[in-house]
Specification:
Blueprint: E1 2-5, H1 19-22, E2 26-29, H2 38-42, E3 47-50, H3 57-61, E4 68-71, H4 81-86, E5 91-92, H5 99-115, H6 117-125, E6 149-153, H7 157-168, E7 172-176, H8 182-187, E8 189-190, H9 193-199, E9 202-205, H10 219-223, E10 229-233, H11 242-251, E11 254-259, E12 279-281, H12 290-308
Parallel strand pairs: 1-2, 1-3, 3-4, 4-5, 6-7, 6-9, 7-8, 9-10, 10-11, 11-12
C-alpha cells in the first residue's frame, strides 16, 4: 500500500518520527507541496495525508487508487470533501489532540498582556534596569486577573479547558456558546453574546469558523465591549475584522489584543494588526507542543487503522 504525506514538516520537523504511519506500507513524506504538485504526488497513492495543502476535486479524480484521505488537523477545509464523498473516499480529521496545549497558550497570551514579560526581559538586557534610579521599574501596568471577568465565546473542549485555568486563577467565567456541557456548567455561567461583550474584562475566542462567526469581532460588536478590554484569539483569524480591531487598538477602546492566528497565513505585510498599538501576534503555534504533535500522529494512525479494519472513525464527509 502506498501512503503519501503532502506537507509533513509542520507536524514533524524531525523530532517525533513517522513509524506510526510507516507500519502501514510504503510511506513517502514531503515537507511541503505546492498546489500544482498535488495531483502528480498522489496519482498512485492509496492513502493520502494532508494538513493545509489543498486536495482538490481534480486531484482526487486524478488518483484512481485513492481509498482514504486523512487530515492531520482538526479543520478539514484543505480537502474537497464532496468530491471525496462522490468517490466513496472517507476523509478523517483529528478533533481533540491539542486541547491542553491550545488552552495553555491562550492563557500564556493573556499573561503576557498582563505582565509584558518578554518586553521587560528585553529592556533589562538593553541596560534600562541598570540605568534606573529605583530598584524596580515597569513600562506597562501590571494587571491582576483575580476577580475579573473572562468571557469565553465557544465553550467546547478548548474553551472549557481555558475556563478551568481562569477559574483556578480566581476569575469569574461567563460564556456565550451553543451548548453547555455538564463540565462547562461547573466552570462558566451562560449568557447572551451581548451580555458577554458588555461585562467581560477579557474576551477569549474559542469558537469554530462558520458563516455566522466570520468577522464576529467587528466595529459593531467592539462598540458593545467595555473600554479597555483585553481580546485573545488563538482559534481562527477570520473571526476578526482586522481593520476594525486595529482601529479599536489605536483608539484605546481595546487595551490589548493577543492573537496566534490571522485572516491570511502566513501573515501579509499589509495586515493592519502589524502596525496597530498594543497587539501581540504569534505565528499560529498554539498547537505545536511536541506532546500535541505526538497525540496528533497517534490519532491519525488510529484513524487509518480503524478504516482498514472496516470501522472508520472521525469521518467528516459521511
Amino acid at each position: 500500500m502506498k501512503l503519501v504525506v503532502l506537507d509533513g514538516y509542520t507536524l514533524n520537523p524531525g523530532d517525533i518520527g513517522w513509524d506510526k504511519l510507516e507500519k502501514f506500507g510504503d510511506l513517502t513524506v514531503y515537507d511541503r507541496t505546492n498546489t500544482g504538485e498535488v495531483s502528480d504526488r498522489i496519482r498512485d497513492a492509496d492513502i493520502v495525508f494532508t494538513n493545509k495543502t489543498y486536495v482538490s476535486r481534480e486531484s482526487i479524480y486524478a488518483a484512481p487508487n485513492l481509498k482514504y484521505i486523512g487530515v492531520l488537523a482538526t479543520g478539514y477545509n484543505s480537502v474537497d470533501i464532496q468530491a471525496a464523498k462522490e468517490r466513496n473516499i472517507p476523509v478523517t480529521n483529528v478533533p481533540s489532540y491539542g486541547t491542553e496545549a491550545v488552552a495553555q497558550f491562550a492563557i500564556g497570551l493573556l499573561l503576557e498582556v498582563c505582565h509584558q514579560i518578554g518586553h521587560h526581559n528585553r529592556v533589562v538586557h538593553e541596560g534600562k534596569w541598570e540605568a534606573c534610579p529605583d530598584y524596580c521599574f515597569w513600562d506597562y501596568p501590571m494587571i491582576e486577573l483575580s476577580g475579573k471577568t473572562m468571557g469565553i465565546i465557544g465553550l467546547g473542549r478548548i474553551g472549557t479547558c481555558t475556563g478551568r485555568i481562569a477559574k483556578a486563577m480566581g476569575m469569574n467565567v461567563i460564556t456565550s456558546t451553543k451548548e453547555l456541557s455538564p463540565e462547562g456548567e461547573k466552570i462558566a455561567r451562560q449568557v447572551s453574546l451581548d451580555e458577554l461583550l458588555k461585562d467581560s474584562d477579557v474576551i477569549m475566542l474559542h469558537c469554530p469558523l462558520t458563516p455566522e462567526t466570520k468577522e464576529m469581532i467587528n466595529k459593531e460588536t467592539i462598540g458593545k465591549m467595555k473600554d479597555g478590554v483585553i481580546l485573545v484569539n488563538n482559534s481562527r483569524g477570520q473571526l476578526i475584522a482586522e481593520q476594525d480591531l486595529a482601529d479599536a487598538l489605536n483608539s484605546g477602546k481595546i487595551y490589548f489584543a493577543a492573537v496566534d492566528v490571522v485572516s491570511e497565513e502566513p501573515i501579509k505585510h499589509q495586515n493592519p494588526l502589524l502596525k496597530a498599538k498594543n497587539c501581540i501576534i504569534t505565528p499560529h503555534i498554539s498547537w505545536t507542543s511536541k506532546e500535541s504533535r505526538m497525540r496528533l500522529m497517534s490519532i491519525a494512525s488510529e484513524n487509518l487503522e480503524q478504516f482498514l479494519a472496516g470501522h472508520p472513525i472521525n469521518v467528516v464527509n459521511g
